[in-house]
Amino acid sequence: MKMRTTRPTRDARQPGLTRGLTWAAAALALALTAAGCASSAQAGPGGSRSGSGQGPLLIGASVSLTGDFADSGKAVQRGYQLWADSVNAKGGLLGRKVQIKVVDDLSSPTQVLTNYQNLISRDHVDLVFGPFSSLLTVPASQVARRYGYAFLEPAGGGPAVFAQKLHNLFFVQPAPSVNSGDVFARWVLSLPAAERPKTAAYAELDDPFAAPIAESIRQAFEAAGIKTVYKQVYPAETQDLSPVMSAIAAQHPDAVVSGTQNNDAYAQVKSLVQLKFSPKFLFLSNGANSPLEFPDKVGTGNTSGILSAGDWFPGSTAPGSADFSAAYTKQYGGTAEQIDNSTAEAYACGQLLEDIAQRTGKLDNATVISALHSGTWPTLLGNLAWDANGAPTSSFSLVQWQQGKLLPVYPQGVAQAAPVVTKPRWGG
Fold first, then answer.
1. Helices vs. strands in the chain: H and E counts, helices first
2. What residue segments make up the domains of the chain, in order of their start?
3. DSSP category for residue 230
4. Please, which residues bridge with residue 247 across strands?
5. 37, 75, 146, 265: least buried by Cβ within 10 Å?
6. Band of the pLDDT at 81, cuts 50, 70, 90?
7. 3-state secondary structure at position 170
C-alpha cells in the first residue's frame, strides 16, 4: 500500500475508476476479438522466446510515463530498471543479462492493450511485468493470459483485478488493497480491554479502494463491541469536509477511522485541527502514509500519533531491502525516506524472478506461474504467497507518525518502535 511521496494514490484510486474499469473491459473485449487467433499463431503459449534461451532476457512492461498516473508510473519504472541493473551487476539471470523494455501507455486502458499486444507478439519479450493501477492492470492481464504469460504486477490490487480469476496473475504486495486496514483492527483488538476504544466514527470517501478499507475495520470493531456513533460516506467531488468532521467531533468518538485518498485525508486532518478535536485513535487509509507530502500538507506538529498502513519502509530487515535502499540512493540520490513504495513493489517483481531462477533453474512463463503458486517467496516486502486468483495472502504493516517520522509499529516482527496508544494533541 503505497507509502512514498510521489504517488497520487496507492492504486490510482481516483473518481470515476469504476466507470473506467467498465469502459476498459469493453475496450479489452473489442481488442481481443480483433486479435482473433493471431495470438497463438504469432507467439504460442508463453511466447516464442524462452526464459532459458540465448541472448538477453527481455522483459516488457507498459508503464504510465505520461498522463494521470505519470508520477507513480515513473516510480514503477525506476523499480524495474533498478532491479535489472542490480541483477546484471551480479551476472544476470541464468547466465543472461536482463533487458527491460518499457513503453508508455499514456495512462490509457486502450494504449495499455496495444502495448502488451506489441510487446508479446511483435517484440517477442520473454516475460512481462505489469503497469500502474487496477484500471490498466485489468485489460493488460487479459492480454498476458491470452498469450500464456505470467503477469507479475506491483500496483493493481483492486477487487476487479482478482474477480477475473486469472491463474497467471500475481499482485506483488502483501495483501489486496482493500485489506490494508485489517492490521489496524488487529492491533486495536489486541490491546487490553481498558485501552481499546469504546466508540468509533467513520468518514469514507465514495471510492472502490477507500470506503471498503474503513468498512472492514468497522465490521471488526462492531463485532468486538466497539460502538459506531457516526458514519458518513461522502462523494468524491466533496471539497469541504468540515461538515462531516464537525459531525464526528460532536460525537466525541474514541476512534476516528477514515477511508481516504490523499487530498481528502489532508482536508480531514486540517478540519479536525481547526475543530480542536483530537481522538484517541486516528487511522487514515491513504494520505497519512506519505512521509514527505503528509507533514507538508498538514504540518509536522499535527502528524503525531496518526496511523496508516504500508508494506515497505527504510530500515526494513526483509530480504534485499538494505541492498535496494543503497542501490536506489546511489543511482537516484536523495535518502531512503524519499523512496516511493511503488519503486519497492516494482523491484520486488524482479526479486521473485531471481528466486525462481535459483530454485528451478528455469524462467519460462509456465515455470514462473507454477512456482509462484507453490510455497512462500521472500522479498523486500516480506514473505509473499498468493491464492488461485493472484491475491496475496499476507498483510500490511501498521505505521504511525512519531517525532516527525513515519515508523512501522505493528506487528512486532517489523516494528521499529512501540505504537503510541493515545494520539497526542494537535501540535504535540
1. 14, 14
2. 17-177+317-384, 179-311+396-410
3. E
4. none
5. 37
6. very high
7. strand
Which of 154, 118, 153 shows the shortest CA–CA distance to 31?
118
H/E stretch holding 282: strand 281-284
Distance in angstroms (rounded) separating the CA atoms of residues 355 and 358: 5
Q: Is 334 left (phi over 0), alpha (psi -120 to 50) or beta?
A: left
Residue 309's Cα: distance from chain center in Å?
A: 11
Assigned CATH for 179-311+396-410: 3.40.50.2300
Question: Do residues 196 and 189 touch, judged by C-beta distance below 8 A?
Answer: yes
State pLDDT tens for residues 249-305: 999 999 999 999 889 999 999 999 999 999 999 999 999 998 888 999 999 999 999
Cell numbers standing for residue 197: 476504544
Cell numbers linked to 147: 498469450
DSSP H or E run through 185: helix 182-190
* The pLDDT of residue 10: 45
Whose cell is 508508455? That residue is 104
The β-bridge partners of 125 are none
CA distances from 179 to 58, 157, 159, 221 (A): 34, 10, 10, 15
CB 232: neighbour CB atoms within 10 A?
A: 14
Class of domain 17-177+317-384: alpha beta
| Model pLDDT for residues 385-422, shown as the tens digit of each residue | 999 999 999 999 999 999 999 999 999 999 999 999 99
- Span 170-185, average pLDDT: 96
- Which SS3 state, helix, strand or coil, does residue 106 take? coil
- By C-alpha distance, which of 73, 133, 154, 135 is closest to 348? 154
Question: At 428, which amino acid appears?
Answer: G
CA–CA distance, 219 with 202 (Å, rounded to integer): 11
Nearest residue to 280 via CA among 198, 222, 397, 168? 198
C-alpha distance from residue 178 to each of 215, 356, 388 (Å): 9, 28, 18
**Can you give the pTM of this predicted structure?**
0.85
* H/E run at residue 273: helix 262-275
What is the residue-wise DSSP string for 194-213?
Answer: GGS-SEEEEEEESSTTTHHH
Place of cell 490498466: 136
Give me the count of residues in the chain. 428
